[in-house]
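Hello,

Following up on my earlier ticket. Below are the two sequence lines again, exactly as submitted.
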Amino acid sequence: MAEDRYETCSEGSACSQMGSNNKCKHVFDRLCGFAPSWNWNTTTTTTLPPPPSGRRIFHRDVEKEAFQYASSSHCLSSYYSVFVVRLAIMVMLAILIGLLTILTWHFTKIYTTKSLKTLAYDLRYELLQRPILRMWNILNSTAEITTAQVKLSQYVIRRYSNPVNQAEQVELYEAMRAITWALFSSKKALNSITINYKNGFVQAFHRDLKDNNTSYIYSDLSNYSMVANEMNSFSAHQAWNDKAIHGNKSAIWYREPLDPVTGDKIGKAMKIAPEDLINIAGLSQVPDGVASWHVAVSKFTDSPLLSAALPVWDSSNKSIMAVVGVTTALYSVGQLMKELVEMHSGHMYLTSQEGYLLATSTNAPLLTNSTKHPTLKMAVDCENEVIKLGAEWLQRAYGNHSPPSHEVHVENAKLGHQQYYIDSFFLNLKRLPLVGVIIIPRKYIMGQVDERAFKTLVILISASLCILVIGCVCILILTNGVSKEMKLRAALISQLEARRKAEASSNYKSQFLANMSHELRTPMAAVIGLLDILISDDCLTNEQYSTVTQIRKCSTALLRLLNNILDLSKVESGKLVLEDAEFDLGRELEGLVDMFSVQCINHNVETVLDLSDEMPKVVRGDSARVVQIFTNLINNSIKFTPSGHIILRGWCEYPNSCNGSPIFPLEQKKSRCIQKAREKQNANNEKRTTKRDNKVILWFEVDDTGCGIDPSKWDSVFESFEQADPSTTRLHGGTGLGLCIVRNLVNKMGGDIKVVKKEGQGTLMRLCLVLSTPTDVTEQHYALDFTDNSLVVLLALHGNMSRLITSKWLQKNGVCTIEASEWNGLTQVLRELFHARSPVHNNNNFDAHYPVTEGLKSKLLSIQDMKKPVFVIVVDIGLLDLSTDIWKEQLNFLHRYFGRARFVWMLNHDTSNNIKMEIRRKGNVLMVNKPLYKAKMVHILEAVIKERNLELQKRNNMIGPRTTTKEGELHEFLEIDSTHFDAGSSDDSDTSETVGSNPVSVDGDKQIELVARSPASSTYKINNCLVGLTNEHLEDTNNARKEESCQSSPSSSKHAIEESDPKSLSTKEPSQGGDSECGETHRAAGPNNNVVNGKNSLEGLRILLAEDTPVLQRVATIMLEKMGASVVAVGDGQQAVDALHCKLGVDDCRRDSLQKERNMRSQTEILTSPYDLILMDCQMPKMDGYEATKAIRKSEVGTGLHIPIVALTAHAMSCDEAKCLEVGMDAYLTKPIDFKQMVSTILSLTKRKTS
Amino acid sequence: MREKEKERKEEISKMDVVTQMQRQLIQYTSSLFQEGFLDDQFNQLQQLQDESNPEFVVEIVTLFFEDAERLLNELSKSLQVEQESIDFRKVDAQVHQLKGSSSSIGAQRVQRVCIAFRNFCEQQNVEGCLKSLQEIKQEYSLVKTKLETLFKMEKQLFAARGSISR
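Thanks for your patience. The regenerated structure is below:
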């Protein structure tokens, strides 16, 4: 396995050499790093060649190379760690299993071997004991026989002692022969028994074991008969020496074959050579008269013989009568050995102490077959290899110094090629010590064990290998999971990293976008401003004019887009901080609807505002952003609604009251809301006073009848740059940012916006905002009840939705309503109403002409029941046929009912002046601009009720000029419209641009309102005196700036005169027509004035410019004068303050003088400051802008005046802005002055003031 | 006839001269913008010029020159080396003024040096101030010559045009 790995490594290196595979490099590197330990590990199990050093060097190079990739190897490193862990676990497993295997094998083997060894020792011992025992037995039996023979011989010889004659001698011998035979025959194992008498006579029985012949051998009797006797007299020793026997060679020996069983003679005695056959034990063998043993050989047998000799003593025990010798063949021992060896294995042999072989377990001859005489062989010379080697080994090992007891136990004697056990035992017989040696091949005893051990080892190793392999596979599988997980994690981490990066980059992108749009906005503003200047230039041809107008439109669109992006990024970056100021929500929304209704007139779309009564009037929040939300939504709706209506519904829900579920269908909800409102009126009041933090959830719906949004796109339309239908961009333009901003803003306000399913065509967007209501403001619901006034309102309006909603609301508030949607209907209803009441007319008659619906009828009936109903007829100017002159007829027709009902005229924005004049001439003074909504209706009704009350009063008192009070009321109430315009358009560039590009201009409207604001006469006068005073003042303020001021003053004063002239004229004119018409005229003039941002947008404004740098002073002066403002420039703060004071002082003087004339003029008007606005440079000599502002503000304290002061600074830092605002400035412009921005700032400030 | 033709030719040649001058003027102006002597503010000034004040730009620029020269004089006075202590606040105010006026005619480079100058003022670094003063003077004289050349060219052009229209 390890080898394989190594192979892959080297392959990997080969790959890396090719320079194509980074991964391989890494793998290789890793392996290199681990090579030493790994080698060490592997060498324990398998031998591994050490990696060649050349390759090592190469690795280094690779490592160096790979180092460059180290940064990207994050993922790989985890892979390697897994790999290494895997390897380590595998190696550990291998070691463990290997150890276990070896230990098991070792212990098994040790124990087996040990037990076997003892067993084997016993066996060997036993094996050797047996032949020795046999030997012993043989010896014993031989000894017994010999002893018996000796005893018998003694007895016989004693009996026949001193034989007197031959016959006795013979008898003795006969007796001896018989005894001997008896003994001989009783022991079959005996080889021979010999008796050697002292006279030299020899008797012997001999058994040839080979051919089972038994023979009796005896010497010639005659030769010894006497001699022996004689000899006996000699010393025994002399007589019995060998020489005597050998000297007896002359004696004749006979051999007589015998029947082996009976002992009878079966053949003739044959002469044989003496001692030819057998050893005859002589006297020499018993030298000291004790039994002796020795090993003999005979030529008849090839095995050695054991012979024992024992002397036969005479009765006195003094002389040896005869010597008995018994020889026994050792053949049987060899036989036994053979048998034993056959049964077991190995070799045995028995030697004498000198090393002569006595018996072996082999068939090898024991005697050397020398020609002369067989002799005993040494064990070393044995023909059997094993025995020979064994004997040699023993000799080599111990030499002649054999161990004391001759006992040797050797286990691992290597003889030849085999291992043998060699054991020797020593049999210590007297005079014949014997050594038994057993050589058993090791194989015989331990062979099995070794084999088994080997087999076990093999099995164990294979088993452990299997386990190892399985374990490795398991580990592989297990770690595979882990590594997979790690890989996944690594992937996840990298993914996260990538995501973070992507987010960061998108962040950068949006940041960039925001920055860019911010940067682009300034040049765009410049472009637009310059275009404005260009447009206001008169020298343009028509084509140029249209081109420039086009450019301006595009630029404003671009600016709008930029603003949107900015808004979006502001919200997204969380930097948008919502204002928290109280504002009149209803008013804002009404202003919005007013604005959009202007836009919608061309679209044939009706804009309807439908707010529930319980809506809090004043809420806390960011009014600009709320308005922006609705502006965007309504803009969006208008874009996609070619005809129909757009309804902005609103209702609210108090989170602390549980029953506010917004999911009701509208109608149901409305009714419930009413109930709720009624019920909760008191409860809520209590709650509101107790609870400090009044969060209120405001629900709004923008419902249009446009093309609708596909349900699948309901969510995505709120994404940035997302449009429901890509093709709409072509048709309607837009970028898809509007709704995104809306959603962001709504979310920011803690609300939610979504598209809701709607019945019928169109889209229904529902959103909720969480705003807080001011706690200290008392409840300002339109908790009006007109029930008591028995009002009847006839709504003759074009727009279905607004009519429906208004009438519903009115009915809810206890006002009876009748609806008419067109001229005919109106006339019908009028006839019905008034003619039915007049006794002249007949109801039924009328019915015949015009079908009257049941509802109308019942209503008419209920009206008839009323006491003195007051009729209010709201007539849409659109009902009149304005295209022809019929409208005059219609007006006359309506005028017939003038006395009986109050007419309220709903005017369009483009209603022409003469129509208005005509209407006014008819005495109709209640005129409101479309659209009609609740607040307007309330005002109308209040006016009507007031008027009626006045009339009642008049009728009662007959005093008090009717008109004055009424006009006052009217003024007040009609002005509501204009303020709404201001509020609606002041903050949102988007809106203002949209409106601005419209031919019907709101700005223009505003402008006129502005002019109309101040009563004509006073304006004129003040203007005049301003001119004068400027000059005066400039002369007074005598300093370095004098020349410049003088330069500028003529132009400015001229300008002022020029400007004031037409204005005064325009204001004078209506004043002739009567006070009542004054406001209206200007309103009427508004829509016709198409120049929006034109030359004279600052017309009539008196501006004090405090700027020390002459250049800037001049530039700003020119800019402002171009816009029609009259400018007084001063050089420092002190002058500015002085100028103001001086003016005020002069004013005061004038006021004093004028006081008598305008006796009851309101205080504020007289105190109007000489300047409408001050542009104040911040850094000036003598007194800087901050100080000057402080001084001015200080002087203002108590007068109720507040001159708007706009700071001009070169530092475009927010801290400066803060500082400016802190000292009491109202706005802030940065140098160099941006034309457009300056104008808009000035306009917004002066308007705020005038409004 | 001939005379008329001659006149015509003359006129044409005059026209050529005018167009050439115009081109030169435009090139010169654009070079001023490119080289950073002037910026958009100058454009704005030019746009403010109309029939009612036909000499507006010249007037403003002249104002600037006067103002700047006065300020530069004051500056060099207040930065005189012999002087013991330098009123840095005063210097700062003067430089601020200069900066304001230069920025409103669009003399970008002067404005830039002014910013550096103010930094030195804040650090009360006399050497830096002096260096900046030199730089401002240099830049001012540069822009002055440039603008004067420009006005001269404009005048010439105007004159040439006048001759044609006559």
